[in-house]
Amino acid sequence: MDKEILLKIKSDLLNFVLSIGPKLIYAIVCLVIGIILIKILRRVLRGILNKSNVELSLRTFIESLSKFLLYGLLFFVVGSVIGIESTSFLAIFGAAGIAVGLALQGSLSNFAGGLLILTFKPFKVGDLIQVNDKLGEVVKLDILHTRIKTFDGRIITMPNGNVSNSDVDNRTMEKYRRIDLKLKFSFEEDFDEIRRIIVEAMSQHPKVVKSMDIDVRMDEIGDYEIRVVARSWVESVEYWPLYWEQLEAVKKALDKAGIEIPYPRRTVFQGKSDDGAEKEQ
Fold this sequence. Notes:
Elements: H1 2-51, H2 56-82, H3 86-103, H4 105-120, E1 128-131, E2 134-141, E3 145-149, E4 155-159, H5 160-164, E5 168-170, E6 176-185, H6 191-203, E7 215-221, E8 226-235, H7 239-256, E9 270-272, E10 278-280
Antiparallel strand pairs: 1-2, 1-5, 2-3, 3-4, 6-8, 7-8, 9-10
Helix pairs in contact: 1-2, 3-4, 6-7
């Protein structure tokens, strides 16, 4: 009896191997060929996008999305070769999609956020942005994440869902940006002379936008100083280098003219008490 069962199991196993074996071999061949074709198609797509006028942020998004769709199609073809019917395959994908969707709600939110970013374009690859106190240049935008590079060389990866729902400060969307230098001076200084010195120092920089006036105004009168703001316009991509250079130029010009930055002062009165002893206040 045991021998008959073993023979039956062996026969059933052999029939199963003979029936599924060729399909399995075809599926493996399709998988290998499909992976090679996907690499070729992605390389061709990358070449087309590089030669076109598509902006870099949309280009990276299309590349990452195409990878996801092509591999999904490949798995569908391999499943069909093995013998899984299209309806069953779609049902499996649908059930898996629901389960994965519930488990990866954050990822779906990030995908939707990526679509919103590409649609409304609050920024693109190459822009200098600040999001949630993170300041850096956008180096990559894919279907789930946005990556920025900070000034100190760090790479920060931010979920697109969070980025699309946050305030985005785009520092390079406009061609020009204003430099504001906030300075303090003593009451004894001649404000007109201060203005002349600052305007002359700031206007000498070759990258200052000549068509926009340099503006020096008294911003506030403090307890022991006057507060002045000096404004000039530069190209957005040159903002930080020019900010530092303008600040240095103004400081050197003020030093040359003998104008000092004020510091807190305290007046001490010295007198005598009723018993003749000296008293300080």
